[in-house]
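ENTRY TYPE: paired fold submission
RECORD: A
CONTENT: sequence, then structure tokens
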Amino acid sequence: QQMIGTAAELTALGMTNGSSINTLAFNLSAVESRVLQNYTIRMRHTTLTSFTSTTFVASGFTVVRNSANLTPVSGWNNISLDTSFAWNGTDNLLIQVTFSNNDAGNVGTNTALFSTTSFASTLFYRADNETAAVVEAATTATFAAYSSRNNMRFGFTSQAPVTWSPITELYTNA
């Protein structure tokens, strides 16, 4: 699954150039009773403003959560990132989430709460009996681009601006 978050949305959250994203959360209204295996999150900057086809962006990602199991719960699922992602303050953010239990997929379902967007913000791939490597290598979404996106929360820190006063005579070569 790939999702676009716009620079305007990130700025509205209080993010600035250099903000470091260190957690990502998804809100689930229903969960199945199994662990999601090989759950991985990747992020990258993008100038995409909308998905115009079902082709996934294939390169340029930073792995921010290494492949590991995730046990979902009802409500907000806060996921700590293994590697913080520094947002550049101008580009949109592309988030890719993958997992695979490599089974028939008939055990149950997790239901994420989502909101409508004014643009095609999500591509989704789903396949049964596929390994994590196959899912991660998928190049085409199994469904059309959606104008809705999982509700997400970002945990981040921002660099506080430093203002020196006075701005002259701050250095003396003695």
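RECORD: B
CONTENT: sequence, then structure tokens
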Amino acid sequence: DGNAGILQGIDPDANTYKNCFPDVTTDWYAKYVCYAKEQEWVAGYSDNTFKPEQTVNKAEATKMIVNSYAIANTDEPSSEFNDVATNDWFFGFVTSLEEKGIIDHDTSYYSPSNGMTRGLTAEYIFRVLVSQSTTALVYTEEDRATFLRDAGLSDLLVGVPYIKSVLYDGEVAQ
């Protein structure tokens, strides 16, 4: 299973996974980046670099999530976002998450070149895990509640304001 490592936690061998990009050699993150490259979760840039010091934008993060969780591309892709065109390299990745209800449509713009916050990345991953744990084709808040209850985590929701969605800048709407 291509995403078993993510679900179980992985610790790639630093002696095996290194020097996969000219700018990813033996730094602390090299083993993770090189493992992700081997799994084809990341590919780097056209100049064969990874740019590890650069902020990951929303398009790049979406690609990594789709690839690492082996989310199938939609059969008839279309996007409701005005800034996601069919000829964009990230079109298929965004539409895959749109179709599955992972991405909210609180606005008509996805802003693919904006940085992706850790909070929004975590929310997308959580929604993917929830959707993969059900037979539903589209993520819903009901699936979220069922997932938390089945995992014995429903107490986390007691006294917590209902979260309507995570906005694109990572803020929470209640």
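NOTES ON RECORD B: Residues 81 and 102 are 14 Å apart (CA to CA). The two ends are 36 Å apart (CA to CA).
STATUS: closed
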